[in-house]
């Protein structure tokens, strides 16, 4: 009996060491693309875009070259320390300076036009879409989280993606072949008793999701990538609705930005089976923002945690965000290849000519 107790103790110790030791990827040959990055991103000033300050919030239009260079430095850390090839990023918010971004990023960053407060009306017109695509922009990023985060009650504005005012632009995108890139729909809405602070009202949450579906119905040829798994990752019923959207709308995709912190809220088997069944519709993303040089090591560690959750069955403390214990999904290599780069390579214009890493396979 005593020997059995010692054996159990040793096994538990080994498991603990495995779970919390430095992660080194088993797949150094798989390149990775982060389709949800914000090297230009600056948080909106408190009060901006409200009744007390009605002007439309805008992101800075001059590229943050320091952040872009730090992204490249961080990728070097990932390669040397974790055997991870983070090859490229999709930049969601660099409306100007596309040529200089290409130069500074060494052609490792595709840029999108963007609207982060579209409830007051989209900035781009239908006639802008084809010229932007020709210039090299990879898609159009729109932000349609709960409108209360941008509009005060009683204010007039565009509240949902399916508003008729958006239709001319969405139709122009569909005709031109421009992606609706990481469109932000809703915010996290957890199970009863744990709704969370972002979108506690389930009725409002589902209004936004049904608005997304109406856009998918109206524009079957429009490629839509929903940011954050369309936030359909916080309840098992949401996962089932996400499965329904994948099955029904062949041009609908999601990115995984900021989602792994919510995986403990849902059934492990339900989540893992969805990732495997619809691996051709899921893209890797993080929601990484501006990056200072002294933060590159910590950011590399957060990236490594996200990859560890997808690649192993280890229990990982925190993903890219959060500090919850998350059981790794241990996805097959062929599934990881699709999520990490093949899906993005298939749908984003301009990626194929830039993917030249040692592990690249068309």
| CATH C-level class | Alpha Beta
Q: How many individual domains?
A: 1
How far is it from the N-terminal to the C-terminal residue, by CA?
56 Å
Assign the structural class, choosing from mainly alpha, mainly beta, alpha/beta, alpha+beta, or little secondary structure.
alpha/beta
Q: Please identify, by name, the CATH architecture.
A: Alpha-Beta Barrel
Name the CATH homologous superfamily.
Metal-dependent hydrolases
What is the string of helix and strand elements? HEHEHEHEHEHEHEHEHEEH
The major sheet is characterized as:
8 strands, parallel
Radius of gyration: 21 Å
Q: Beta-strand level of the residues, as a percent range?
A: 5-15%
Spatial order of the strands in the main sheet?
Answer: 1-2-3-4-5-6-7-8
Helix content: 25-40%
Cα shape? globular
Indicate the CATH topology: TIM Barrel
Tell me the number of helical segments per DSSP (H or I, 4 or more residues long). 10
| Mean pLDDT across every amino acid position | 87
Question: Overview of this structure, please?
Answer:
This protein has 362 residues and is of the alpha/beta class. The protein has a single domain (31-347), classed as Metal-dependent hydrolases (TIM Barrel, Alpha-Beta Barrel), CATH 3.20.20. It is 37% helix and 14% strand. It has an eight-stranded parallel β-sheet. A two-stranded antiparallel ribbon has the order 9-10. Helix 7 (236-248) links the parallel strand 6 (224-226) and strand 7 (252-255). Helix 2 (65-82) packs across helix 9 and helix 4 runs parallel beside helix 5 (167-176).
């Amino acid at each position: 009996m005593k020997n059995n107790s010692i054996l159990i103790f040793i096994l538990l110790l080994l498991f603990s060491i495995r779970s919390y030791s430095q992660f080194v990827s088993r797949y150094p040959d798989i390149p990775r693309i982060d389709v949800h990055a914000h090297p230009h991103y600056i948080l909106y000033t408190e009060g901006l875009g409200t009744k007390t300050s009605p002007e439309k919030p805008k992101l800075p239009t001059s590229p943050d070259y320091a952040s872009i260079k730090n992204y490249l430095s961080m990728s070097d850390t990932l390669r040397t320390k974790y055997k991870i090839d983070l090859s490229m990023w999709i930049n969601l918010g660099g409306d100007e300076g596309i040529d200089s971004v290409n130069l500074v990023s060494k052609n490792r960053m595709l840029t999108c036009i963007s609207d982060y407060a579209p409830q007051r009306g989209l900035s781009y017109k239908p006639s802008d879409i084809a010229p932007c695509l020709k210039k090299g922009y990879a898609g159009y990023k729109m932000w349609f989280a709960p409108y209360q985060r941008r509009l005060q009650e009683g204010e007039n504005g565009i509240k949902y993606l399916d508003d008729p005012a958006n239709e001319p632009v969405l139709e122009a995108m569909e005709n031109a072949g421009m992606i609706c890139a990481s469109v932000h729909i809703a915010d996290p809405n957890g199970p009863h008793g744990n709704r969370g602070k972002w979108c506690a009202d389930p009725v409002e949450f589902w209004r936004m999701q049904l608005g997304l579906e109406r856009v998918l119905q109206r524009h079957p040829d429009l490629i839509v990538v929903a940011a954050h798994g369309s936030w359909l990752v916080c309840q098992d019923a949401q996962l089932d609705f996400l499965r329904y959207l994948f099955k029904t709308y062949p041009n609908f995709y999601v990115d995984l930005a900021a989602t792994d912190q919510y995986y403990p809220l849902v059934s492990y088997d339900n989540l893992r089976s969805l990732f495997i069944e619809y691996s051709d519709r899921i893209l890797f993303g993080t929601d990484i923002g501006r990056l200072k040089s002294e933060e590159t090591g910590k950011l590399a560690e957060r990236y490594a945690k996200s990859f560890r959750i997808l690649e192993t069955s280890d229990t990982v403390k925190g993903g890219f965000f959060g500090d919850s214990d998350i059981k790794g999904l241990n996805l097959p290599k062929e599934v990881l290849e699709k999520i990490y780069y093949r899906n993005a390579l298939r749908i984003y214009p301009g990626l194929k000519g830039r993917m030249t890493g040692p592990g690249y396979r068309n």
